[in-house]
Specification:
By secondary structure, the chain is an alpha/beta fold. It has a single domain, classed as 3-Layer(aba) Sandwich (Rossmann fold), CATH 3.40.50. It contains 7 helices and 10 strands. It has an 8-stranded mixed β-sheet with strand order 3-2-1-4-5-8-9-10, sandwiched between helices. A two-stranded antiparallel sheet has the order 6-7. A hairpin with a 3-residue loop joins strand 6 and strand 7. The model has no long low-confidence stretch (mean pLDDT 96). It binds NADP nicotinamide-adenine-dinucleotide phosphate (NAP). The site of NADP nicotinamide-adenine-dinucleotide phosphate has 22 residues, from helix 1 and helix 4.
Length: 212
Amino acid sequence: MNIGIIGAGGVGRALAKGLTAAGHTVHISSRDPRSESLFTWKEEIGHTCTVTGFKEAASFGEIIILAINWNGVEPVLRSIGAGVFADKIVIDLSNAVEFTDSPQLALKEGSAGELVQQWLPTAKVVKTLNMIGESKMVHPVFTEGNPTMFVCGNQQDAKQTVIRLLAQLGWNDCIDLGDIGRSRLLESIMLTCLLCEIQLQSFGAAFSLLRK
Ligand SMILES: NC(=O)c1ccc[n+]([C@@H]2O[C@H](COP(=O)([O-])OP(=O)(O)OC[C@H]3O[C@@H](n4cnc5c(N)ncnc54)[C@H](OP(=O)(O)O)[C@@H]3O)[C@@H](O)[C@H]2O)c1
């Protein structure tokens, strides 16, 4: 599939690498697509992945992944234009977190996923992957077993497509939690995982649902 990634930080790069390795055609984007750091990264990974601006990546993708800092999401989506996302799948993995004494959710009501769906009313927004660190986002391996990944969104077909994409990235235990309102839960799970990591001083944790 053609996949556009908005953001070329740690998460954007990890997903671009994993998705190109899985056979997808990826356009990754940045405020500065000509930066030396992106050029070097692209040379090093050796995959055929194109670096562009935000609007080009969004126009290219059948699936678009939002991988920028939360404070940049609304202005970047506005600058691209909601129409570019019409009928497309948008994977939102952003986390609105404030770091004061300890991390906390910045949104007192609602969630990032719901806001993204409001800003892109004709897109099929699917929230997922926000609760796993970038180093474990692709082919997560844990000696203790398989980690679980949750998805939520309003369109069933979009969630099924995203679950198939997640399987290609090594996520074999995906659970659909319901509509985009469930983003609140996914964002809370992220915070819970993060606080556990801080408390235990053990980073790279993932959530796993134990069953009978
Ligand atoms: N890091 C993780 O392990 C992890 C895991 C799950 C979810 N997330 C979420 O994924 C998102 C990206 O995280 P990351 O770790 O990849 O961050 P990062 O490495 O700091 O990269 C941030 C990206 O966002 C862009 N950006 C930052 N502020 C912006 C603004 N005001 N306007 C436009 N673009 C802006 C940067 O653009 P330039 O390239 O132009 O500098 C960069 O591409 C965040 O919402 C984060 O909460 C992160």
